[in-house]
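Subject: Sanity check before I submit

Could someone independently write out the structure tokens for this chain? I want to compare against mine line by line before I put it in a report. The sequence has 55 residues.
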Amino acid sequence: MIFTKGFCVRDETDYEKGDYDSFNSLNECTSQVLEKHLILTLHEFFKDATMHVKG
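---
Independent answer below. Compare away.
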């Protein structure tokens, strides 16, 4: 193994279901938060891994 790094994500989203929301809107909000953190985590991991492998 060349490089490992642990990550911990703590995030919450305030959300109140409105009259016009479908039943899946909470799942959509949850998936957007998950996608955001996957992108941020992968970006940070690859940035740090690149520095570690080069150095």
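---
OP: Matches mine. For the report I'm noting this point. The mean pLDDT is 76.
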